[in-house]
Each structure stands twice: as structure tokens, then as C-alpha cells.
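Q: A reviewer asked whether we had any structural model of the full assembly, not just the individual parts. We don't, so I'm hoping you can provide one. Inputs are below.
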Amino acid sequence: MKDSAKIFNQIVEDRRSVRVYDAAAEFDHTAVQRSLERAILSPNSSNMQLWEFYRIRSEEGLKQVAWMCMNQKAAKTARELVVFVARKDLWRKRQRALVKEMKRVYGDQPKDKGAQRAFNYYESLIPKYYFNDPFGVWGFIKKCIYFFVGLKRPMVRHGNATDVRISVHKSAALAAQTFMLSMKAEGYDTCPMEGMDSLRIKRFLKLPRRAEVTMVIGCGPAAEGGIYSERFRIPNSEVIFEV
Ligand SMILES: Cc1cc2nc3c(=O)[nH]c(=O)nc-3n(C[C@H](O)[C@H](O)[C@H](O)COP(=O)(O)O)c2cc1C
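A: Here is a predicted structure for the entire assembly that you could use as a starting point for your response.
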């Protein structure tokens, strides 16, 4: 095994969901910033980066958001809370940023076939995928097109409003995992939480209606007894298959 794999293995093995944090131990908040900057390097669907991260640091903010996390100890004792938010509503803004970036790299009228395909993808296909009308008509039409095209050849199947939501949460969750592993590499612990009142958190953060909280992550140095149980995983043979 390579040295880098050994280090990575150690980080993965050591990361546990920690439910109680030490109030007295030193906590370097810059580790959170560094870990978020690593999190944004995570793979994400079409590189649309439909995510936002809100750091809760003030005493009052921590108290309020911990309450919105059902006063779970993992939130109540956390030294910092980070809210991972899925922002599917920002798709148009991100699409424009990506097209602008492509123009910067390839110029306005690229001759290269690969670049033309990329332009077509972001200028034409991305809006078709992310746009959804309030009645779900366009989503239904897309599903029908996929069904009929899919009878003859492999075809993507997702495209209605729910599919887009799932896709955006998947990317935000990947960023969350990068963040948690990075925090472990920095010597700190985390606990992801979906046991929370997402509506209240959205209001607290003044987020628009269509933004969605993916999870809240408690961070800090673990307290003695902060890990509640031994790690348990279903045997590999029941979950890893070779086909
Ligand atoms: C999406 C998600 C939501 C979770 N929500 C909570 C939660 O609300 N409260 C909590 O104590 N743990 C929560 N967890 C932590 C899991 O219980 C934990 O990851 C699991 O038991 C495995 O333990 P480990 O992380 O120590 O390996 C959550 C984990 C994930 C991935």
C-alpha cells in the first residue's frame, strides 16, 4: 500500500460521528475554513456547484441552531456548526458562470469539436435539465422522452424536479464527506445531522424558499465518551459485489 493510502486509511478509520465535544480543549476555527475550501473541490454534478456553506460561530447563533437541531448533544456541545445547503435555485447563475469560463478558455466561437460539445452542453442541455415549471409539465415531458428514447438505447432517466433535487443533494453530501475527512485530518471531529428543523434553519439563515438544507455538521475536539458505541458495519460480503 502506498504511503498516501496508509495516511488516508488512517483518517477514514479514525473518523467517527462524535456526539459530545470538549468545551475546554483548543479548537482552531481556521481548520473549518480550510476544510470548507477542500470541500468545494469535491466532485459535483456538471460542476454546477449548487451548494453553500454557512458557518455558525457566535454563541447566540450556536445556541439557536443547536435548538433547531433538536438540542442534540452533537449540536449543543459543538464548537462550530456548519450548515450544508443545496441551492438548486442558483442553477441559472452557475450556468452563466460556467459559460463565461468556457468562453474565457476557448474563445467565443470555438472550432474544436470537444469545446463545441461542451458549449452545447452548458448552453442548451443544462437549462433543459434544470428548468422545471411549477406544475411539473416539463418534467413529465422529459420523462416521457427518456422513456421512448430509452427503449432503443441507454438514456438518462432523471430530469423532473425531484430528480434535480436529489442530484443537488448528492453533490452537497459529497462536499460534506470531504469536509468531515478534512476535519479529521486536521485533528478534529464532526457529526453530520439530518435530525433538525430545516424550515427554521432556512428562516434563520434567511434562505429563499427553494434552498434546501442537506445537513448540519457539528465540529470540535471530541470529549471523553463523545463516541457512543463501537463501530458497526454490515459484513463486506453483504454490500460489496463483483458482477
Ligand atoms: C445524512 C446523515 C444524517 C445523520 N444524522 C444524524 C443525526 O441527526 N444525529 C446523529 O447523532 N447522527 C447522525 N448521523 C450520524 C450517523 O448516525 C453515523 O454516521 C452512523 O451511525 C455511522 O457511525 P460513524 O459515523 O461513527 O461511522 C447522520 C449521518 C448521516 C450521513
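A: Points you may want to mention in the reply: The beta strands are 51-56, 80-86, 189-193, 212-220. Residues 14-89+135-221 form a domain with the NADH Oxidase fold (CATH 3.40.109.10).
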